[in-house]
């Protein structure tokens, strides 16, 4: 109490000045329309700027949730595309829902680790067995093919990138369905090679390359890239095709894991044929 009295005694001049100054502002605001309007305009501007900054900051921290929501929505829409279904019958005049059965579903995930500079590059995503992901599932991005799932834990999965010398993806030229194998030679993360395309196939620069109907991991028609250059040496049976990839692996953030619902059925059937040989 003694210290409080001493404080007021020491600074009473300043305190009195502050009280009188505050009183004068109140009187000025109360009885002068111009000053009142100016003050309101100023405080409204300050408040508006403050709330705008708060709103921008809040929206920034909500971007992750918004992105996850959009990825889930995209996965749902991809599962409704026609190439996610297989045809079970024929119709003469119209398409009936009973004619098509779901073959592919999609699981949205975020990239948490990635490499592009090695001979064998891998990607880690933040979804695992808990989300339904299993080894040997195809992985695509918004622009095209990404790779193949290799190993899975409860909450994470690793992907053997298309930028991996051990990755082989069945692809074809969109214009004529001539198929080959997409294989990376380790040169540049922007390019790959399409191998085993027969020499009799007509190829021109900028031809579009997509996944083929021989792939068990990807729906037919998923974009891969375009023919950047091609050559055929005398005596060769296959073209050398350099492919400019659609996917920019250095900026990859979001992917979709593709689940082929009928893959096991096809593999089991084909394994019986191999056993017979």
Explain how this protein is built.
The protein has 4 helices and 14 strands. By secondary structure, it is of the alpha+beta class. The strands form 3 sheets. A 6-stranded antiparallel beta barrel has the order 3-4-7-6-5-14. Strands 8-9-10-13-12-11 form a 6-stranded antiparallel beta barrel. Helix 1 (2-31) packs across helix 2 (33-61). The longest helix has 30 residues, at 2-31. It is elongated. The N and C termini lie far apart (102 Å). Residues 85-98 have low confidence and may be disordered.
Topology:
Blueprint (H helix, E strand, L loop, with lengths): L1 H30 L1 H29 L1 H16 L6 E3 L12 E3 L1 E11 L5 E6 L12 E3 L4 E8 L4 E8 L4 E5 L5 E5 L7 E5 L12 E4 L11 E9 L8 E6 L8 E7 L2 H14 L1
Antiparallel strand pairs: 1-2, 3-4, 3-14, 4-7, 5-6, 5-14, 6-7, 8-9, 8-11, 9-10, 10-13, 11-12, 12-13
Report the CATH superfamily of the largest domain. Rod shape-determining protein MreC, domain 1
Q: What is the CATH level 1 assignment of the largest domain?
A: Mainly Beta
Could you give the distance between the termini?
Answer: 102 Å
**Structural shape:** elongated
Helix content: 25-40%
Assembly form of the protein? single chain
- What string, H for helix and E for strand, traces the elements in order? HHHEEEEEEEEEEEEEEH
**Main beta sheet:** 6 strands, antiparallel, barrel
Number of helical segments? 4
Strand portion = 25-35%
Q: What is the radius of gyration? A: 32 Å
Structural class: alpha+beta
CATH A-level architecture of the largest domain: Beta Barrel
How much is the average pLDDT? 80
Instruction: Show unreliable segments.
Output: 85-98
CATH fold group of the largest domain: Thrombin, subunit H
């Amino acid at each position: 109490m003694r210290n409080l009295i001493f404080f007021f005694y020491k600074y009473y001049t300043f305190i009195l000045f502050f009280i009188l100054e505050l009183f004068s502002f109140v009187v000025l605001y109360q009885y002068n329309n111009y000053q009142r309007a100016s003050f309101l305009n100023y405080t409204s501007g300050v408040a508006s700027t403050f709330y705008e900054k708060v709103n921008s900051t809040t929206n920034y921290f909500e971007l992750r949730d918004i992105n996850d929501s959009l990825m889930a929505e995209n996965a749902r829409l991809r599962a409704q595309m026609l190439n996610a279904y297989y045809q079970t019958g024929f119709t003469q005049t119209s398409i009936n829902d009973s004619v098509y059965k779901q073959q592919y579903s999609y699981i949205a995930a975020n990239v948490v680790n990635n490499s592009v500079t090695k001979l064998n590059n891998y990607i880690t995503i933040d979804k695992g067995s808990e989300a339904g992901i299993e080894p040997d599932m195809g992985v695509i991005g918004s622009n095209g093919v990404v790779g193949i799932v290799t190993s899975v834990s409860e909450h994470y999965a690793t992907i053997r990138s298309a930028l991996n010398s051990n990755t082989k993806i069945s692809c074809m030229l969109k214009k004529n369905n001539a198929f080959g194998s997409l294989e990376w030679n380790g040169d540049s993360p922007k390019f790959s090679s399409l191998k085993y395309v027969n020499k009799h196939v007509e190829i021109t620069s900028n031809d579009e390359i997509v996944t083929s109907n021989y792939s068990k991991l990807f729906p037919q028609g998923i974009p891969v890239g375009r023919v950047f250059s091609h050559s055929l040496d005398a005596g060769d049976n296959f073209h050398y095709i350099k492919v400019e990839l659609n996917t920019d692996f250095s900026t990859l953030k979001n992917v979709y894991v593709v689940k082929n619902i009928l893959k096991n059925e096809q593999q089991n059937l084909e394994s019986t044929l191999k056993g017979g040989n």
